Amino acid sequence: MARACWVPVSDAVGRKITTIEGLHPDGTHPLQLAWIAEQVPQCGYCQPGQIMQAAALLAQKPKATDAEIVEAMKGNLCRCAAYIRIKRAIKRVVQGA
Predict the structure, then answer these.
(1) 1-26: buried (b, 16+ CB within 10 Å) or exposed (e) per residue?
(2) Residue 26: which residues within 8 A CB-CB, separation 6 or more?
(3) What pLDDT shows up at residue 24?
(4) In Å, how far from its chain's centre is CA 88?
(5) Whole-number mean pLDDT of the chain?
(6) Which of 21, 38, 50, 86 is exposed most, by the fewest CB atoms within 10 A?
């Protein structure tokens, strides 16, 4: 995974790019549903980045531990401080809830 803000467009030519809209055509990816169930969003500013980071983590580690979740998500800042709800949403997907 690479953050779009760090990748020049020229480096993306011919490569697969997944955006938040590309997780599922109708917005029902398990992470998107967990975000709704846990009422994660407040302002919404960081949510696409948070969900995409979580999706990258779970693609590599579908049964991520609490420590792995915290480590993977530590680079994403949330100005509303919804970190507990974000972690709960990711855990919901890990647990298959």
Answers:
(1) eeeeeeeeeeeeeeeeeeebeebeee
(2) none
(3) 92
(4) 12
(5) 91
(6) 21
Name the pTM for this structure: 0.87
Residue for token pair 């990711």: 90
The residue behind tokens 């055509």 is 25
pLDDT digits (tens, 9 = 90+) for 6-48: 788 898 899 888 888 999 989 899 999 999 999 998 888 899 9
State how far the Cα of 79 lies from the Cα of 82, in Å rounded to an integer.
8
pLDDT of 97 strictly over 80: no
- Kindly state the tokens that stand for 20: 């938040």
Closest CA to 52 of 83, 28, 76: 76
Q: What sign results for the dihedral spanned by CA atoms 44, 54, 38, 87?
A: negative
Count of helices and strands (H, E) across the chain: 5, 0
Q: Could you tell me if 91 and 35 are in contact, meaning their C-beta atoms sit under 8 angstroms apart?
A: no
